[in-house]
Amino acid sequence: MLEFFKRLKIRAKLLAAFGSLIILSILLTVYAIISIRDILIVKSVASETELLSTNLVRIELASKEFITEGYKEKEFQQFGKSQHIDAFTKFLTHANENLSVLSVSALAADPILKEKIQKISTSKQVSDGFNEMVTLLKRRGFKDFGLEGQLRESIHAVEVSNHNFDKVLMLTLRRHEKDFFLRKELKYQDEFNNTIKAFEKALINQNDTSLAALLLNYQNRFNEVVEIEKQIGLTATQGKKGIFFEELKNVKEEVAVISQIVAEKAMDQIAQSRLLLVVIFVIQLIVAIILSISYSNVITSVIKELRSAMARLAEGSFPEPLIVRTKEEVGETKKAFNQMLDRLKMASRFAENLGNGQLHQQYDEAYKNDVLAKSLIAMQQKLNETERIQAKINWTNEGAAQFSEIIKKENVEVTMLADTILKQLITYLKANQGAMYLVDEEDNSLERIATYAYDKKKFIKDKVAIDEGLLGQCYLEKESIYLKEVPNNYIKITSGLGESPPTNVLITPLKTREKVVGLIELASFNILEKHELDFVEKMSESIASILLSRQIADRTARLLAEAKQREQELVQREEELKQNAEELSATQEEMQRQRTQLEREIKLLKSKLSLHDITLN
Fold it and tell me: Staple partner for 437: which of 70, 290, 386, 446, CB 3.0–4.6 Å?
């Protein structure tokens, strides 16, 4: 038997080993489902019983609330409606529904349960008793309704009458009335009637028969209220009230017995199911252990051989290929392991060559579609891509360093610096020609300050309107314009072989702090790659900064020169003003001297005239 089992394929071995376990598991599962179903049925009956008990408690609570306070509501006294009556009816309906469910359940076959459920279902004493109390309480009334309303009308008729009567006796009657309503004790009725008799005797002695008639009516109404209170029940155990609550108590006790029986059956069902499940599980466990030991002894030798080879492979060394003796699954496994070994060796050599820098080697076509091979080839592609990216980064850094050296040169005239920058940029990008423009804000134009390899016949003007053509568009939008389809009449590149239109034109704003200070225009036969465009964008910021600083420096120098010239003119003018002031001072002194002399001459003439007048007289 053991040799036959050894000759079976692994698939057949597994089916034989685990088939019995599956059968046992199915049996265990089926029995578990049946047991769970039975338990759920018992649980549902128990739940229904609990709901029945809860509804009975709610019925009792609604009844008590109605008997104590609910009947006093105006809506009940007027229309016979009350939320407590509705609640009683609702919960009574639910209780009857619970009983209906219990009566058709599987446990209803039990004779004790069947008898008790049928007894409760057919009993009408709870509903009839409650309806009788509703009728009596409606007849009794409250305040202005029913017998109590009539009682109040009768005493009101006595109190508003114009007869002279003993107020103390009247107050005593009202006190006995109130005491009875508060304490529900019959001794207050006797005291009331005795007081009435004394009151009537006094009225007869006074011959006041009309007031005696009113008083008699008051007594009759009071006694009617007392009688109906007796019918209802002065205490919870008397009258209709006592009968109702006693019957409700009996029903609750019957339901409690039902609940206890259902709970016991549920516990018995659970214990029985648990025992059988444990027995089946133990049998399954024993069979599984026996089959596991048998199966492990059959394949242990093969697993040890594979484990040894895998352990050596895990330690980082390649084991010897496994010897394939059979063609069943174990033999196929050894064959697959040997193939995996060959693939790993090939992958190891390929990875080693990659590590040595041989990034363009070819993977063996026989293993090219392997997952590991695809990963290594993908890594090779990523390394090549990384190398290309690094080359672009190095190209950008080297170009930035060269331009940094050019920009660092100080005391260089702007046009010369622009020529140097433009030439270096075109040479480094391997473009063909280009131009650099500065913004002239005074006459609102773009002034070309540097060119390289341009056809002079096409560019006679040194200035371009700031809103003209692509240059103006680039200035206004403050963004680069890169054309891959250049119009034939846009520009021509001249060489020793003739003239040809460029295939690519790049116009980049020289922008710093969102201010455009100039433009660079490049033309080329070659397509500019993204990193070259980014390089131009990056360099344009540095170029813009240095040109702006140079412009500011030139403007500052020009302003200083103009200031010095104005200072010299002011000094010269000050000298002239000083000289004029001295001449004016001398003129003023001469005029003062002449004025003094003239005044003397006038005085002299006046004195002579005075003497002449005296002589004539």
Answer: 446
Q: What's the pTM?
A: 0.44
Residues 262-307: pLDDT tens digits?
A: 777 778 777 777 787 788 778 877 877 876 676 666 566 666 666 7
Hey, what are 277's tokens? 């499940």
Tens of pLDDT, residues 546-588: 877 777 777 787 788 887 888 888 888 888 888 887 878 888 8
The string of DSSP codes covering 90-112 is: HHHHHHHHHHHHHHTSGGGGSHH
Q: Which residue has the higher pLDDT, 364 or 246?
A: 246
Q: What are the residues whose beta carbons fall under 8 Å from the beta carbon of 572, sequence distance 6 or more?
A: none
Phi, psi of 435 (to 5 degrees): -150, 155
How much is the pLDDT for 496? 36
Distances from the Cα of 39 to the Cα of 106, 272, 273, angstroms: 12, 10, 9
Task: Record the tokens describing residue 520, joined without a space.
Answer: 């660079």
Residue 108 in contact with residue 100, Cβ under 8 Å? no
Half-sphere exposure of 82 (CA within 13 A, CB side): 25
Q: Return d(Cα 233, Cα 67) in angstroms, integer.
A: 10
Say how far apart CA 575 and CA 290 lie, in whole Å: 129
For residue 81, pLDDT over 50 is answered with yes
Rounded to 5 degrees, φ, ψ at 342 are: -60, -40
Please, what is the Cα angle at 49 between 47 and 54, to 5 degrees?
A: 95
DSSP string spanning 332-393?
Answer: HHHHHHHHHHHHHHHHHHHHHHHHTT-TT----GGGTTSHHHHHHHHHHHHHHHHHHHHHHH
* Complete DSSP assignment for 269-330: HHHHHHHHHHHHHHHHHHHHHHHHHHHHHHHHHHHHHHHHHHHHHHTTSPPPPPP---SSHH
